[in-house]
């Protein structure tokens, strides 16, 4: 499973980082970005939750 963030949509709220810090971080511009290429299996549920909770629907999840 992979996750990506649309920087144009990201509102820098930090929700995804709070919910799934193993996968998301804020970059120097306070935009969320994935910190891993492949979502670790143990973080998949949290990653899906982060995508669901993102207020701007900026997170896309793709199955491998
Ligand atoms: Fe950006 Fe969405 Fe993460 Fe908020 S939850 S920081 S809007 S990607």
What does this structure look like?
This protein has 64 residues and is of the alpha+beta class. The chain has helices spanning 15-19, 44-53; strands spanning 2-5, 24-26, 32-34, 59-62. The structure holds iron/sulfur cluster. Iron/sulfur cluster binds next to helix 1.
- Supply the CATH class: Alpha Beta
Level of helix content? Answer: 10-25%
Low-pLDDT parts are none
Termini separation comes to: 5 Å
Brief overview, please?
This protein is an alpha+beta fold and 64 residues long. Helices cover 23% and strands 22% of the residues. Strands 1-4 form a two-stranded antiparallel sheet. A two-stranded antiparallel ribbon has the order 2-3.
Keywords:
2 helices, two-stranded antiparallel sheet, binds iron/sulfur cluster, 64 residues, alpha+beta, two-stranded antiparallel ribbon, Alpha-Beta Plaits
Secondary structure topology:
Layout: E1 2-5, H1 15-19, E2 24-26, E3 32-34, H2 44-53, E4 59-62
Antiparallel strand pairs: 1-4, 2-3
This protein binds iron/sulfur cluster.
